[in-house]
Amino acid sequence: MASSKKKLTPLSDQEIQSKYGQFQSDLQAVASKIGELESEADEHSLVLTTLDEALQDDPDRKCFRLIGGVLVERTVKDVVPALHTNRDGIRTAVKGLADQYTSKEKEFETFKEDYKIRVVGRV
């Protein structure tokens, strides 16, 4: 942290304001994507809960899956493993985005400290 203060690039007020807005925008975009992916993972879990019952009763029961905008007929035993993989991939992506958000947030806090930025209550 001490090394970053030595190499602090002087910025104009307009550049500081622009960079501040960019940090806020980036954080908002990552938070939005995290929410979107969490919702998608919840949907996958809901479908898996339903299909797990069908898998136990009749694994050869046909079901339909939307792949790339095309509705495809498959059996429950074919779809369930793919849905598990997709859900796990989504959860991994959410964890990665959460780490990215935390990192960006720390970078933003450092930026605010370096340029002595304080947020004052708005009217």
TrEMBL record:
InterPro entries: PFD2, PFD_beta-like, Prefoldin. The keyword Chaperone applies. It comes from the Eukaryota. Coiled coil: none annotated. Keywords: Chaperone. The keyword Chaperone applies. Pfam families: Prefoldin_2. Belongs to the prefoldin subunit beta family. This is Prefoldin beta-like protein.
